[in-house]
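#dry-run=false #mode=assembly
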Amino acid sequence: MGSLTPDFRFGNFVGSIVWLVFVVLALVTLLILPIIFFVLFYVPLPEVDGEVLTPYLFFSMMVDPSRTLPVVQFFIHTDLFRAAIFPGFGFAALIAAATIFIERKLLAKMQLRVGPLYAGKVEGIFQLLADGLKLLTKEIIVPSGSDKPIFWLAPIMFVSTAAAVVALIPVADGWVVADVSVGLIAAFAILGFFPLIALLFSWSSNSKYPFIGGLRALHQMIAFEIPFFLSALPVVILSSSLNLTEIARSQNLFMNIFILPINAFVFFISSLAELERIPFDLPEAESEIVAGWLTETTGMLYGLIQLGSYLKLYALAGLFVVLFLGGWSGPQIFPPELIPGAHDSNLPLLQMLALDGLYNPVTVNSIFWFMIKTIIVILLMLIIRGINPRIRIDILLHTGWYKLIVLTFINLFIVLMLIYGGVIGPGGLISIR
Amino acid sequence: MSNIEEKISEAKKLALQITRETEEDRLMTLSVGPQHPGSGHFRFVIKVDGDYIVYVDPDPGYVHRGHEKMCEYRNHFQNIPHLERPVIHDSCNITYSYSLAVEDLVGITVPRRGQFIRALASELSRLSYTLYWLAIYGIFLGHSTMFMWPAGDRELLIDLLERLTGARITNAFSIPGGVRCDIPNNFKEKCLAQVNYFEKRLKEYEDIFFNNPLLRQRTEGVGILTKEDAIKLGVTGSVLRASGVPFDVRKVEPYDVYNEIDFQVQYMKTCDSFARAYVPLLDMRESCHIIRQLIDKMPESGDVREKLQFNIKSSPGETYKRVESGRGALGYHVVSDGSPKPYRVKASVGSFRNLLALPFLLTGSKLGDMPAIYWSLNYWPVEADR
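#status=ok
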């Protein structure tokens, strides 16, 4: 497969990158720095290492690398950083963007195509940026007779609800935006909002195809929510906690998927249905109801809903990893120190490079394993799209209400048998705790 | 006072009329096409009661171009390039029957080598059309890989047709008197190699699409068109064969060299949407066999075309010749008054016959079955409108 565009010149490519860096630097010095100074002048500043963090101190830290680390350390433990950047919205949005790109390339390779190629020269890596810019510049058409406040609000509600699910997913021990003691129930409660948003949006857009699509979304999500909850029930029995961090911790010895293979399967299928992905993309069935409940969306409203649904994909893959694949557990492969002996040396640059005080091998290892597992789950979800057709709504409802619910109970009883037979559980042959 | 009371009672009556729910209120009218992604150049109005379709009104005619009238102003050779336009993917078949009809009127026989080449082009064209049809069937059922694979493999056959005729899809290859040109050098080897590869791909289609349990769940037992109904409605082609009638014009009324070719008429007895999708795949296998035999039995040398003068005059009279196209029996009724131009040309196309089954099958089915039934009818809107 061709991976470079025909008119690709490496020199031009490097030149364009240098030009880009120049433009960014010029913008930073001329625009962003003055703005930062103005803002920092009015904002009450925190104390770092016994000094008030003035703008001057901040920039002196940029010059002296060893003084930068405490500032970074201070920032990554603030709530704002967790919610906005890692492991919150920014990180999840990055994963979502990467998922869209990988999905397009992967499907293209499966289908004997090339996929995005031209934007960004190399394998079309900037295709998503181009698409985003295109969506931003497009006109937003609001259908006449629509309920305008709801029509405008629903896409934003969709993204924020998806981000709320992301906030509950722990990527490492202690690295979670909202460590709720009933995290699992909270996740299901927030996921229950999606059909409402779909129905509100489809109803407010005053059109026939979206209305049918919204009703289908409602039917589908209600039919699959019950097996979705029930498949997570044995996990709670095994770990005797509803907190997602506790659930992940309890799988230190072995992953839940070895005891609960059927439930993991049901959870996977149900999450595909929650995500409205093929083979369960009935609410967006193109050949039947145009684009389903998204028919009247234009421009960035569509972009927001797409972003929301891929955030939801990441959140559900993360939930699968936490519930069944042991969360962040995995063999320790990162060394205790990034550069051995850097802690004792006096060179500030070496300390900087070794991320002294910032680098925590256990946390980095946890995040690494969590990401590996999540990416595998996401890829599994993507591959399904390439090999399956859409199913019909009566088969879908039958699958949700009869087959999947029965399957979850089978595995639930197996787990209970094992616990009362003294194989697993407290004091069992294979003790989890 | 009484005036006011009258007004109030009238208003009450009106209000009652407005709020009373009628049987019609349960129904929602949906227009499928021409801008709906699930229709093509075609519209049908459906009324749904919940998830069930209760009323279907097909409304063809969006791409009517008056080919039959256009034929009356051009001579027989000038007619060929515009007659292939209704189905450019199946162009070698749609011009085949017109050429046969004109040859019958003029009273000539095509040289033997020309007959073989014409049949070869017709089979390649049929494969190309069926692949295109199958691709759209795949995407209508939400299977994007099944859209891309046949659309990509179609390139193999288009490549062959381009080497054979000089054009990728609008070939205008079959003309009254034979074919326009002889086969190029090394064509036979190349054709055999590509057809052999293509047969392997058919196996992969079966694996990824036709043996997929989700597809089987969705299409088996859907849109049953029984043998009796199929014959009554007058459907043709793969739709008729899927209903258990082994009817193939190549076998029933062999034209040109088809009586020398050994092939089976593929048919199924399940009569459902799955059978209507599967029979074309079996047909493609048969076509590959036929292509091999044609290449094997083709005379090594000889004329490919009976030389005719440009304004050839036919004897007054009328004739009807039909061939088996990708969509079923495709015939031309040509009436001549002795002048170089035909007096009247009437095309009998498979698409329009199959359209008659659409309201019959859709009424009472579910909305989700609509694409599976509609596109399984092997209907090509442009050909039906002509």
